[in-house]
Amino acid sequence: MRDTRESRLLLVLLIAIAFALITVDIRGGEESPLGGARQAAASAFGPVENGVASAVDPIGNAIGAVRDSGERHSRIAALERENAALKLRLGSDARTRSRAAELDKILRTAGAGQYSVKGAQVIAIGAAQGFSWTVTIDVGSDDGIARDMTVLNGDGLVGRVTTVGPSTATVLLANDPDFTVGTRLEGSGELGFATGQGGRDLRVQLLNGKTVVKKGDRMVTFGSQGGKPFVAGVPVGEVTRVDPSRGELTRTVQVRPFAGFTRLDLVGVVVKPPRKDPRDAVLPPKPKGPKPTPTVTVTATPTIPAPDGN
Predict the structure, then answer these.
(1) Which residue range is the domain that position 55 belongs to?
(2) Quick check: helix, strand or coil at residue 135?
(3) 128 and 257 in a common domain
(4) Total structural domains in the chain?
């Protein structure tokens, strides 16, 4: 249509009619004469609107799901961090309790033997000085540690100090083949020498070949002059086997050490020996054996029939 005077008049007329219809529809409300036409339009275009909404909603839902998923992942990550921290704290608490119990055992052992000890922690294992069975502890000359001091833990003899640095020291363990310590048999006091055999039990040669010894008997250290390299009375181990006597001057027994050399953590270095030999006082009480089963004796009394009166 060309832009002429007639076309402009027609456009103005159509706009005026449109405004008039809108005014009539608004004033009529629900009873508007245009209600039927509006409903027809809604019926015609409603499905199209719903289709468009259905097509758009999954996109909106997906965006919301991604947003919610991110929030859930953040919450899950936070819970996982809290759980890991809780496990770490619980594990640390358990280890702290275990080490506190171990330290308490060392102090009880030191108290029973009247040993003055310096606490230490095992920080390394290995053959730093060419020894087969050694550990490194975190105390040295700055802490008053010197060569040939006895090392123990809450179970018994661990070894002796061989090399000392300013802040660390090397301990030769009692199960090393080059390790030898004098021993005393509990009760009888029979003397001997214990030698390490690596991962096996200690080998003890009793000086008296006629010594009466049996499985389960226990031994302590005999002690050295001045308490070096060994103080007296430190628990060594328990007899596990008595080798047959062949008429020799000495008698050999196998002794399981009280200390576990593969699980060492806290130890005590004896920096001052006791004033007197504690003998067997440091040994823990022997475990009580099972109670004997009581024997019940039942005596049956025979029944004697009454004499016949006839």
Answers:
(1) 1-28+35-113
(2) strand
(3) yes
(4) 2
